[in-house]
Amino acid sequence: MAYAFDCPDSPRPFDGRLGPLESLLYDHWHGIHPLNGKLPGRQHFDPVELAKRYPQLLQHLWLVDVERDPLRFRLQLVGSAVYMTSPFARSGRYIDEFIDPASRAETLNAAFTRLVETRQPEFRQGWPRVASSRHARQLARLSLPLAADGETVDTIVNLTTYAWATIDRPDFPHAD
Q: Exposed (0-12), middle (13-18) or buried (19+): which is 160, by Cβ within 10 Å?
């Protein structure tokens, strides 16, 4: 289930749906907003500073560059938990290189396109839609827009956490 919101000034737009790590990142992002009401940019968001303040976030963090004409999304920075879980998650790769074109309407491409168009954060919780090398059974992903000019989204900050299928529960339902 995905959630978006249309009030960027709201300090708690997702009605308690965020977990503790997502809440930390959201609060940090909200706190770096310029006073003029514009979106924060990459110049405001420093992963090194974030790691000093909240070291538990870095492994779940991944940054995506937004390219235009045509609109494409390129992985810029990939945290170790994302790297170890997702066989595709390598810096420099494009999202559309590893998502089946037939399913793009329901995946990252559509979510990121919506985020770029609306300039609003998104939160998704549910089954992974991309194959996992570590048998993730659920994920939570918070996606936050950054805009160097305060208006045009050029980077998406993501934090993804996973719940794992256990070896002693082969009957646990999984996504097909």
A: buried
**Tokens, residue 117:** 């168009």
Residue 154, in any domain of the structure: yes
Where does 33-132 have alpha helices with state H?
Answer: 47-53, 55-58, 80-85, 108-118
Q: Per residue in 15-62, pLDDT tens? A: 678 889 999 999 999 999 888 879 999 999 999 999 999 999 888 898
Among the ranges given (53-67, 91-105, 117-131), the one the predictor scored with the smallest mean pLDDT: 91-105
Residue 138 lies in a domain: yes
Whether 15 is covered by a domain: the verdict is no
* Rounded distance between C-alpha atoms, residue 145 and residue 161, angstroms: 18
Instruction: Give yes or no for a contact between 62 and 45, defined as CB atoms under 8 angstroms apart.
Output: no
- Cα 171 from chain centroid? 29
pTM of the full structure: 0.79
